[in-house]
Protein: Helix-turn-helix transcriptional regulator
Amino acid sequence: MSEPSWWTYIRRIAGTETGRVIAEAAGVSEPQVSRWKTGKNTPDADKLVEFARYFNRPPLEALIAAGYIRQDEAAGDIEVHTRPQELSDEELLSEIKRRMEARHGLEADQEPRTPGEAIKDQKTELGNDVEVADAAMLGLADRFADAGEEDDRLQS
Structure:
């Protein structure tokens, strides 16, 4: 009979540590560790996480080894949702700032602007566009005027 994959993982991480140390790391009894080894019991997820943290390993690694989640489920970005009531004031303010920056297109190093400043900037940008358009129209008008003077000279 082959040993369970979670026991292979535990052995690989714990190395030559005794069953007592493994039990201490996971917060369980030594007999429980023996049942893990024989495959009679599967470790509870919280005990695997505790074990992984004891040995400075990622908890996801332990959960995958025990079959609680698949490798493909752990891939990519993982977003943990927390109720606003559970956030500290600092975490809540940070989230509000992140959302406002995303909503208003601010870069991380850009100073936030008041609504009045944003409107002024938009008017300035619009004004610059109007100035460019005015200059283009004046240029065309000058060309037509020059062309008209040229026609007058040719006809005389």
In short: Residues 115-155 form the longest helix (41 residues). The radius of gyration is 35 Å. The CA atoms of residues 18 and 30 lie 9 Å apart. DSSP finds eight helices and no strands in the chain.
